[in-house]
Amino acid sequence: MARIAWVNLPKWKHVIIALTYIYGIGKTSSIEILNKVAIKSTRKIETLSDDELDIIRAEIKEYLVEWDLRRLISWNIKRLMEIRCYRGERHKKRLPVRGQNTKTNAKTRKWKAKAIAGKKK
After folding, report:
1. Mean pLDDT rounded to a whole number for the chain
2. 52 part of a folded domain
3. Is residue 121 part of a domain?
4. CA gap 78, 72 in Å, rounded
5. Cβ(37)–Cβ(55) under 8 Å?
6. Whether residues 88 and 45 fall in one domain
7. 50 and 72: one domain?
8. What residues contact 50, with CB distance under 8 A and at least 6 apart?
9. What is the DSSP string of 65-82?
10. Is 17 found in the same domain as 53?
């Protein structure tokens, strides 16, 4: 199994699909990476040599992926909550953030009631 950016990539998958297992890399980004390093997207991970994997690793280092990206996103959400903007308040209340209807179709976001710390009855 190839390991790129702390992620084990499945060896039986095509390179273009296997790269999407890395958080922050979608299909478009994987096509872009493979074009830069001149590797065919139809090749399987198990057929890549160590040198080719190193070239892909070096190219992926230019992208913001995995825990760096997750940390940045969580910091952005915390910043919104600290400045108490509308989106931050929606995040705090665990409600849909982008203006979706909540009367009937917010089951996945509202799921079950969470205790609010410091709330008096």
Report:
1. 91
2. yes
3. no
4. 10
5. yes
6. no
7. no
8. none
9. -HHHHHHHHHHHHHHHHH
10. yes
Check whether residue 18 and residue 54 sit in a common domain: yes
Mean pLDDT of 87-112: 86
Q: Which domain holds residue 91?
A: 64-97
Encode pLDDT of 41-87 as tens digits.
Answer: 999 999 999 999 999 999 999 999 999 999 999 999 999 999 999 99
Q: Are 25 and 60 in contact (CB under 8 A)?
A: yes
| Tokens of residue 63, six digits | 């992208």
How are the residues of the chain apportioned to helix, strand and coil, as percentages rounded to the nearest 5?
A: 50, 5, 45
In this structure, are residues 68 and 6 in contact, taking their beta carbons and an 8 Å threshold?
no
Q: How far apart are CA 55 and CA 38, in angstroms?
A: 10
Name residue 44's beta-bridge partners: 14
